[in-house]
């Protein structure tokens, strides 16, 4: 079909600018195919595909932003927890472990 059109019209520009009647003179091109080609040449570039790509980009950006916010919130909670542990620990190590070790020693002595 492409070869037929180019042989008949000489260039893509001339094919695109041709009328339905001119295209229908090409051997092997039926009425339905000619109509679809002519409509495709005249139809503005599809904004539907462009809108879908834009929507996909926006959704991806929103997803990344949400992930970043969740990561920041998780990091903030971790830092709060570390501050609480440090404040309750008094900076002297793990007292509960020392107490457990002391109890074991006392039990062994008796």
- Report strand %: under 5%
- Say what oligomer this is: single chain
The residue fraction in helices comes out at: over 70%
Give the mean pLDDT: 82
Sequence of secondary-structure elements: HHHHHH
Protein architecture, described:
The chain has 110 residues and is an all-alpha fold. It has 2 domains: 2-42, Orthogonal Bundle (DNA polymerase, domain 1), CATH 1.10.150; 45-91. It is 81% helix and 0% strand.
Keywords:
110 residues
Compile the SSE list and pairings.
Elements: H1 2-9, H2 12-17, H3 20-24, H4 31-42, H5 47-89, H6 95-109
Structure summary:
It contains six helices and no strands.
């Amino acid at each position: 079909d492409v070869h037929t059109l180019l042989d008949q019209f000489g260039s893509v520009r001339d094919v695109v600018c041709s009328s339905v009647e001119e295209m229908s003179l090409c051997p092997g091109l039926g009425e339905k195919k000619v109509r679809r080609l002519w409509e495709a040449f005249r139809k503005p570039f599809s904004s539907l595909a462009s809108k879908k790509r834009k929507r996909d980009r926006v959704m991806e950006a929103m997803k990344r932003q949400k992930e970043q916010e969740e990561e920041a919130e998780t990091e903030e909670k971790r830092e709060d927890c570390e501050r609480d542990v440090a404040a309750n620990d008094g900076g002297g190590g793990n007292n509960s472990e020392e107490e457990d070790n002391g109890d074991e020693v006392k039990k062994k002595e008796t």
